[in-house]
Amino acid sequence: MDTIKEIIANLDSEELCRYCNHREYCDGGVKCYGGEPIYPPCADGLDEDDIDIDLYLEDMEESDEA
Predict the structure, then answer these.
(1) List of residues 6+ apart from 20 with CB closer than 8 A
(2) First vs last Cα of the chain: how many Å apart?
(3) Second label for 11, Cα 20 to 30 Å away, from 21, 36, 43, 58?
(4) Residue 36: which domain range?
(5) What is the number of structural domains in the chain?
(6) What are the distances in angstroms from CA 8 to CA 32, 37, 47?
(7) What is the pLDDT of residues 14-64, one digit of tens each?
(8) 26-38: per-residue pLDDT in tens?
(9) Which residues contact 19 (CB under 8 A, 6 or more apart)?
């Protein structure tokens, strides 16, 4: 099985947002309200704690069944 780091490296940005643990309060974009830009939590990269691996595995299991 792939490690979480390998999974992260192979996901495109839309998929990363889908499996990101910050998706409840982050829309994935940079915000600017006239001051300094506000970057999403993933701007510095994601690690294992940022990915909902259970959701990813559930989706992979469903795609294997289809």
Answers:
(1) 26, 28, 41, 42, 46, 50, 51, 52
(2) 20
(3) 36
(4) 4-65
(5) 1
(6) 27, 25, 8
(7) 888 899 999 888 888 889 999 999 999 888 888 888 899 999 999 989 888
(8) 888 889 999 999 9
(9) 11, 51, 52, 53, 55, 56
Q: Is 24 within 8 Å of 44 (Cβ atoms)?
A: no
Token pair recorded at residue 61: 């299991």
- The number of residues in the chain equals 66
Q: Indicate if the pLDDT at residue 66 is higher than 80.
A: no
Q: Give the predicted TM-score (pTM) of the model.
A: 0.73
Which tokens go with 32?
Answer: 């600017």
